[in-house]
Amino acid sequence: THIRLVLFDMDSSDEEVEEDETEWKSSFVDPAPLSPSLHKTSGPTPAHKVILHLDLDCFYAQVEMIRNPTLRDVPLGIQQKNIIVTCNYVARQQGLTKLMFVTDAMEKCPQLVLVKGEDLTHYREMSYKVTELLMSYCPLVERLGFDENFMDITELVDRRLAQTPDSNNFSFKGHVYNHLWVGHQTAKRLQALGVVSIQDLQLFPLNELVREFGSPSAQRLKNLAAGVDDSPVTPTGAPQSLSDEDSFKKMSSTKDVLEKIQELLSSLVERMNKDGRQPQTFRLTIRRYSATNKWFSRESRQCPDPQPHRTEDHLCDDAVVQLVPLAMKLFQKMVDSNTTFHLTLINVCFSNLQTRGAAISGKGSITSFFTHSATSPRKTQVCSSSQTLHGFKWKQSSVVAVEDPLLQTADCSTARSDPDETNNAVTHQLPPNVDPEVFKLLPEDIQKELLSPAYVNSLPSTSTSPSAPAVVPDVPHMTKNKSPHSFTSSKNIEDFKEALNKSDLSDRETTERTSWKTGDRPSPWSSDCEFPGNVDPEVFSELPPDVQRELMSEWKQQKPVLKIPSSRKPGRSLTTKDRKAAGKGSQANSLLKYFKPS
DNA sequence: AAGCAATAG
DNA sequence: GGTTCTATTGCTT
Fold first, then answer.
1. Residues of A from 499 to 538 whose C-beta is within 7 A of strand C: which are they?
2. Is the CB of A85 under 7 A from strand C?
3. What is the distance of C-alpha A67 from the center of its chain?
4. Which architecture, in CATH terms, is A1-9+47-164?
5. Cα–Cα nearest to A409, from A557, A218, A222, A575
6. For the segment A257-298, what is each residue's pLDDT rounded down to a tens digit?
7. Is A210 (CB) below 7 Å from strand B?
8. CB A199 under 7 Å to nucleic chain B
9. Is A14 in contact with A168 (CB distance < 8 Å)?
């Protein structure tokens, strides 16, 4: 409960993450008490982390209850095909459970109200809203599925403790893992070794475990059995793939397959459009009926996505038209349409999602035209909340990207490859213009001040671009000749370069007289900004819509930044999901309270 | 890079 | 007896 105090006193906004009736679970890597001091003066600081695990209960049901408040008081089930995938607590009181068949459910609870939940759009959107809300407090948020988030709040806690008199007298308790946190297959292998309980695993000789699972996995199993999990919370960022699928009892004609693919692609292409990135890979997956292996075993074929650009809305249908033959080609690689076949599922997927800029600029992205240089300051708070792309706002995401996205990337990768470097937790958040080496030499209180979100948010807003409006105007229709920067049909990136690459000089002046003042924004991180600060909204608004979309997407992606796909850590098998072990069966984390009662 | 298995909610 | 709709990671080729 001390953790709750620490977290929830953070600000006084009524958009509070959670309160009374909710039971929070926190897990500690290190059973040792938290050190109240953030900055070590000498010797090694004991490793400690405070990680929140937030699990939203009956998530789909809650979303539907928000959409339609009359559903709050009735037993509600979310139906996908023949099953109730989740249900609200009223329904659970009548004995309903997850993944129950509709027929059984109706028998148990004749008054059950069903809402179709096969289309995940609303769930997906609400899911990201929750993640964004959490990220407004602290960027280290890792998603697991649509309804769970892990949040590393170590720094928030440490900072709070450092500011709290008498915090020495606080005590903390860790949560002890006590559930099944291995999957089915692994459990079977363990069982074959005679390991069925946590204690079995604790007592089982490591070397025999290594023989079965290999060294890294074995070590990890052992650690988890001891309640030790030092895996970092890795910010999830934007998804790495978008897919759409449908299952059915039987599909056996090529015509039906084609129609289904068309249907799936229509919605997937639309989603891809909103995202703004360009998929480099397209994949088709099927599941065939077979008496033995009924519901597992999917087969897939994938290929490079040849489409150059189809981000314009009116090209959406074209895109589908182009992709359907491609999909059918992949389909024929798996299924001989001369023989009979029996499919029970089709999935289409875009992956290898790239921003347009990434392919063009060696520096990494088109964003480099907006960000002046690694050491330049950025304007803050130039933004409004009215900028909505396709109805899905990622409003707070870029806020937390207090640093140049490129810099952030570098810092994150450093942190990942260097897990023992305790200072990384601190330095990865350094304000721009601050050399980490120099930073370490500064007096403690100065360091603290530099790290406070208030400071970071107050960074050189000192109007380097006086003409920039305080609010982003609504994106106008493209007016060809009116504006000083008019973009015609040519979408060459060079066209944008000049217009966007504005006054470096004035910015550099600001850089040199770096102001160390502390701002007084009441709510750290939670401003309403949507662009990186140094983007001129006027110029932005004149970009072609698809380019705007891509940029938004890119910023969205790069916010606190994210997994670096290529830099895998070797030899980690059972990964961060293991953390999930803790905290099952907590009380309702009700979303409802954030919405006006009916 | 492709295909797939395992795992998760 | 039936087994949804995603998404990620890692192994293998």
1. none
2. yes
3. 23
4. 3-Layer(aba) Sandwich (3.40)
5. A557
6. 999 999 899 989 988 888 888 888 999 999 888 776 656 788
7. no
8. no
9. no
